[in-house]
Write a structure and sequence with these properties.
The chain has 226 residues and is of the alpha/beta class. The chain contains seven helices and nine strands; from the N terminus they run ααββαβαβαβαββββα. It has one domain (2-224).
């Protein structure tokens, strides 16, 4: 039975149906929740930029960017993994174009494509630095390398919803529930020094990873008091 369900999930129409259902659910959650917004205009301080968010917080990111009133389109780097195909469908329904690849898997071509877009100042780029399979909440080197090559800042994006379920997945995925209250956070721009050597880049990687995790914990803490 499990193999049948797994095979069924490889069919395009099934993937589209799942993506559509997820899109409708996410939009319903978004419009039925009351939101506190922190730093959502930080993206205006330096364009273009990379937007990084953990895999467990991917669902509401497209709507978060709309609330931030970005005046340029958002494109997202998405893995070619099966989960990535479902995410691609969901993102396209949300009005977000995609670039195949990830910072850890099939990333070389996607990396060059990302740098090209950023240097041409065509769009913002969103990526999930611990996807598609983790380790959860650990920033890969690819995100920092992309920021250095493209000479752009990185912004952390996250959210928390008071009513939610934490799924038993590798990333402890947060499933937000409707009719709740939530917090959205965007960090200040984080800059990568062009002259940084390997040791310097590793220090920056650790520093930005801490920013992402601190912002996530801050959102979770704040939402408890709403």
């Amino acid at each position: 039975m499990k193999s049948f369900i797994k095979k069924l999930g490889t069919y395009g129409f099934v993937q589209y149906l799942i993506g559509f259902i997820v899109y409708v659910y996410v939009y319903f959650v978004f419009i039925t929740c009351k939101w506190e917004k922190i730093g959502l205009d930080n993206h205006k301080k330096d364009f273009p930029g990379l937007f990084a968010f953990w895999h467990s917080r991917i669902l509401l990111i497209p709507l978060l960017t709309k609330v931030a009133k970005m005046d340029k389109p958002l494109k997202a780097m998405v893995s070619k993994h099966r989960d990535g195909r479902l995410i691609t469908i969901f993102l396209k329904l949300s009005g977000v174009a995609t670039i195949d690849g990830s910072t850890n898997h099939g990333g070389m071509r996607a990396g060059f494509e990302t740098v090209r877009h950023l240097k041409k100042k065509e769009s913002y780029i969103g990526l999930c630095p611990d996807g598609p399979r983790g380790p959860a909440y650990e920033l890969g080197k690819g995100t920092i390398a992309l920021a250095k090559m493209a000479k752009v800042p990185i912004y952390s994006m996250t959210y928390a919803v008071k009513k939610h379920k934490i799924l038993r997945t590798w990333d402890k995925f947060m499933l937000p529930l409707p009719f709740s209250k939530g917090v959205m956070i965007m960090s200040e721009p984080f800059y990568v020094n062009e002259g940084s050597d390997d040791e310097g880049l590793e220090n920056l990687r650790v520093e930005f990873q801490k920013i992402m995790n601190d912002d996530m914990e801050k959102a979770m803490s704040l939402v408890k008091d709403l």
